[in-house]
Amino acid sequence: MARVVSVALLGPVGVAAVGIAAVGAAAIWGPYWLIPAVVLLALGATGVHDLVQRRHTVLRNYPVIGHLRYLMEALRPEIQQYFIERDYDGRPYDRERRSIIYERAKGIHGEQAFGTERDIEEIGYEHLVHSVVPAPEPDQPPRVTIGGPDCRRPYSMALLNVSAMSFGALSANAIRAIGAGAAAGGFAQDTGEGGLTPYHLDAGADLVWEIGSGYFGTRTADGRFDPVQFADQSSHERIKCVSLKLSQGAKPGVGGVLPAAKVSEEIARYRGVPAHQKCVSPPAHSVFSTPRELAQFIGTMRELADGKPIGIKLCVGSRREMLALCKAMIAEQITPDFIVVDGAEGGTAAAPLEYEDHVGMPLTEGLITVHNALVGAGLRDRVTIGASGKVAGGADIVKRLVQGADYTNAARAMMMAAGCIQAQRCHTNTCPSGVATQDPHRARALHVGDKTQRVRRYQEATVAQAVQIMATMGVTHPAQLHPAMLFKRIDATGDRSYAELYEWLAPGQLLDDPPASWEADWAAADPDTFRPA
């Protein structure tokens, strides 16, 4: 590390040295040399300061020239509105999300003058229903207990947690900063499928250990699930839950990919794969192939983990597949303790472009599908539901709770709180902010202590805003929210509530008398195949 810092200092020190030489030249050949001398000395001093300061990662990686970014921020809204905060398709709502994340992470107040930036008459605009008599805010934010009837060691989950991000996709410093922020704020960190590492464990956060189809961290030499390693790893006190990843929002149906440039010796050791070669997870699991086998494997994992909560994560593709899994749960009398629904619009991982835009169910539809399937099959009281996909603000949390979730996860927002500027260079190993790179020079610029506090502040302020919004709606706990509290504009002249827009099944309705709209899917769902005729 010291060598990296020394090399980085050569540029600014060299500039300053030339400036000092120019001062000498001024003494010999005249005062005109003082102008370049002053400029060079100022640039050199600025560069040295940029490299040793800890607040701005971009300046540590790009001394002097990095100030152009902050100059544009200072000229807001004229410059920032059209360059820094504009999304790739120019949507104002995503500009709002970015402002929320950065300002809360920095501890800046969230008030704004001159009202909404959104066109509240546009099709698709949503609003939450407030009450004339708001409820008092609870002293502490509500938490959610994860653990079904077969779980012996339930866990209390926060309303907003860190979604799955692996070491490899993120740098060690980013993992440490986000984990330490989670530990300080009392929320959970998902390890991602890249294996359990000391950077996760040493940060001190409560961990959700994610197991993907590559079984990294718990795999045999031929890449299959290793129950002995799993039992050993899952016994660690930091691991509170285990999540079996079936698919992810960014690229459902495609295994995770870590480019060869990011597969260092260290990462290869934690994952159990060859170094400096592209690391690709299989698209499907090898330990099960049917809904019934999946349910049985969930039961096996729970026993190996000594009764800790076991869940699954998926981006929903087919309602029939979800119903087939419900039938398998009923037949085997085994349910996951939680299901995390990953929306197709979410995801921080690099993915094929057409998968990002065209494959997988959006979070709203996926969440409502899973909630309804569990309710209709009489299983909802056994399974907690998490929601992940562009969750950034308190309103996002409340909307997902209205739609059927019990808690939420965020990945991109946590990256941004830790310094990500959305340069979209994650897959190239050249991330300018040190968040998504394995380049030691770039990663060292991310100061763990500073970014720890930003992550903590962001999550704390966002949950506080969600709690305040719920109180404004007249409720004190998420269980009191219902679909009639969220409206969506459907045409130029009116809006309708989610209670009207979507069908909501009654407990056990699929078992007793399936409605016509669900009857064919329920009849076709087979606990012994994910591909019913």
Would you give an account of this structure?
With 533 residues, the protein is of the alpha/beta class. It folds into 2 domains: 83 residues, no CATH class; 346 residues, Aldolase class I (TIM Barrel, Alpha-Beta Barrel). Helix content is 42%, strand content 11%. The protein has 21 helices and 15 strands. The strands form 4 sheets. An 8-stranded parallel β-sheet has the order 4-13-12-11-10-7-6-5. A 3-stranded antiparallel β-sheet has the order 1-14-15. The chain has a two-stranded antiparallel ribbon with strand order 2-3. α8 links the parallel β5 and β6. α11 crosses α12 and α12 runs parallel beside α14. The longest helix is centred in the first third of the chain and has 28 residues.
Distance between the termini: 59 Å
| Assigned CATH class of the largest domain | Alpha Beta
Query: Mean pLDDT score, rounded?
Result: 85
Fraction of residues in β-strands: 5-15%
Oligomer: single chain
**CATH topology of the largest domain, which one?**
TIM Barrel
Shape: globular
Q: In what order do the strands lie side by side in the largest sheet? A: 4-13-12-11-10-7-6-5
Tally of individual domains: 2
- Helix-and-strand structural type: alpha/beta
Classified in CATH, the superfamily of the largest domain is Aldolase class I
Low-confidence stretches: 1-10, 77-93
Distinct helical segment count = 21
Major sheet description = 8 strands, parallel
Number of strands: 15
Radius of gyration: 25 Å
The CATH architecture term of the largest domain is Alpha-Beta Barrel
Helix content: 40-55%
